[in-house]
Amino acid sequence: MRSGNAGGHIAHIGGAAFGLVFAMQHLAGRDITKGISKVLSGIESWFAPKQRFTIKDKNARKMTDPDYNRLKKQHQADIDAILEKIKKSGYESLSKEEKELLFRESKRN
Questions:
Q1: What does each C-alpha distance from 60 to 24, 57, 71 come to in angstroms?
Q2: Crossing angle for the helix pair 96-108 and 65-89, nearest 10 degrees?
C-alpha cells in the first residue's frame, strides 16, 4: 500500500466495515438504516403534493335505484309545474325559489 492517499484507504476500510456490520444486522433481522430512511421520507414529504381533505357524512347511504327514480320523477314534475306556470302566467309570476330552481337546472344540463 502506498501512503500517498491515506484518507482514501481509510474511507474504503470504513466502508467495508460498515457493509459488514450492515450485512450481519440484516441477517439478524434488524434494519440499521431505519432512522436515515425516516429522515429522508420526512424531507421527501415536503415536496410531495398535498392531499385535500373532504368531509364525508358517515351516516350517508347510497340511494337505491327505486329511491333515485322516485326522486328524479318528483324533481322533473316540479320543473314541469314551473314551466307550465310560465306558460300560463309568465316568468314574472314565479317565486324566488322557483326561479332559483329553474336557474340551477339550466346550469346542470
A1: 54, 5, 16
A2: 120
Domain locations in the chain as residue ranges: 6-47, 65-108
The H-or-E segment that residue 98 falls in is helix 96-108
d(C-alpha 77, C-alpha 84), whole Å: 10
Cα gap 104→109, rounded to integer Å:
9
pLDDT tens track, the chain, 109 positions: 566 788 889 999 999 999 999 999 989 998 888 888 899 999 998 888 887 777 777 777 788 899 999 999 999 999 999 999 999 999 999 999 999 998 988 887 6
In this prediction the pTM is 0.42
Q: In 1-95, which residue ranges form alpha helices assigned H by DSSP? A: 6-27, 34-47, 65-89
**What distance in Å separates the CA atoms of residue 48 and residue 80, rounded to the nearest whole number?**
50
